[in-house]
Amino acid sequence: MITTRPHLMSRPVDDxxxxxxxxxxxxxxxxxxxxxxxxxxxLVGVAAVGLVFETFDWWSDNRAGISAVCAGAxxxxxxxxxxxxxEGSAERAARVRLWVxxxxxFFIAFEMMRYxxxxxxxxxxxxxxxxxxxxxxxxxxxxxxxxxxxxxxGYQAISGVVEICSAALLAFRRTAALGACVLLAAxxxxxxxxxxxxVPIKLFSxxxxxxxxxxxxxxxxxxxxxxxxxxPVPPRAYLxxxxxxxxxxALSTFAVVLVLVLxxxxxxxxxxxxxxxxxxxxxxAWTVVAVTGGGAGHLPVEGAWxxxxxxxxxxxxxxxxxxxxxxxxxxxxxxxSLRLFDFDAPKGATVNDGxxxxxxxxxxxxxxHIDASYEGQPLxxxxxxxxxxxxxx
Length: 393
Description:
Lipocalin
């Protein structure tokens, strides 16, 4: 006789609740089941918070991020307790657990597709010229790591392919365990990197690692027997979705497409916006040969300019001695027009506060000439390109 266990993922296939009339088994609530359900629902709450943070590109390694994650986890745990009190059918509870498990693995697949695509298209570790022109001893740990990974495209592309493969495998129930194994192999390294190189995504990278372990939890007994136990590995047990239901299949197909295609398309769109797929004439590190005009008190950055860095993403830096001042920029490559603004502008400042430098530019070989005005005063800057040169992606 085949026995059943209260947790969804430990049910043998021969005893599928979906193949029995509903309501034939009364739900049994033991403490392990209550704790397991609470943790699973908590992960769904955390996933909801993660989608919000990722959508708005908010930092999470701070009090606000930790508070939001705790709130999401708490809401999920409370929802689990309330549902457990109201639910009386073991079959319906099993299906709810399946949906919770599915939502968690879909969330991880979504995130891994985002990060993997970003690496493949070269957006995550693309060249930052002010990094390449900084001594390693003067770099932050994160800057050092990003420069290392961005030095060769092949390394980051292979890393991205691994993450994309884990996402594709996680999107399907039958390959979810293999996808979780691939995910864990990648995430352990990523979590260590984030903590020891002070990358500000420690919280959610750790959460992804925990979620990967949760996706593997239905196969925990099988892994235990395979690696540490004796005897044959038990067959895989999961709740099968009834066949022959076109609506259910269509919804599943839509969900998989949403999880895999949407994040990839979003990353490719952002990469195109940031100019990752092409190199502009201005892009690079430039040594300042001469600055004429402006005068004392009439320069956007006071002092003797040493270098100017134009980066992808319409921003850059002016280097004055040991000081580096950030600016935003708008330029038209075809028309040769250029505007630099918000030079270390305080919070709330606008581009019309007098800190805008606009004019035209022209290049000849490795020389750059800028004719502009600042605060109504003419300003001319002569520069020579340093990078890119011998440095390659």
